[in-house]
Design goal:
alpha+beta; 41% strand; 83 residues
């Protein structure tokens, strides 16, 4: 059995700051609540899901939108496939 940590950047764009923060916060809560739940990602054995708090990070190429980012770290089991 081989475990691996995978880091995923999640970005949320919205028209206003409040809606963007609410959506990013829902993603954060879903990840935090789902840690250890083997059914979150079908076909993947996921031991731990560790989200970081969302932060606002403006995108200079999209000045009319607000952008929030959060990083989610997944600890998963990687199995070898026979060829």
């Amino acid at each position: 059995m081989v475990e691996e940590e995978i880091r995923v950047l999640v970005e949320v764009w919205q028209r206003d700051q409040e809606t963007g923060f609410d959506e990013a916060s829902r993603i954060y809560a879903l990840c935090a609540y789902s840690s250890g739940n083997q059914e979150v990602f079908p076909g993947v054995v996921c031991y731990q899901i560790q989200p970081e708090r969302p932060v606002e990070h403006p995108d200079i190429d999209a000045p009319d939108l607000t952008r929030f980012q959060l990083i989610v770290t997944l600890r998963v089991r990687m199995e070898r496939k026979e060829c």
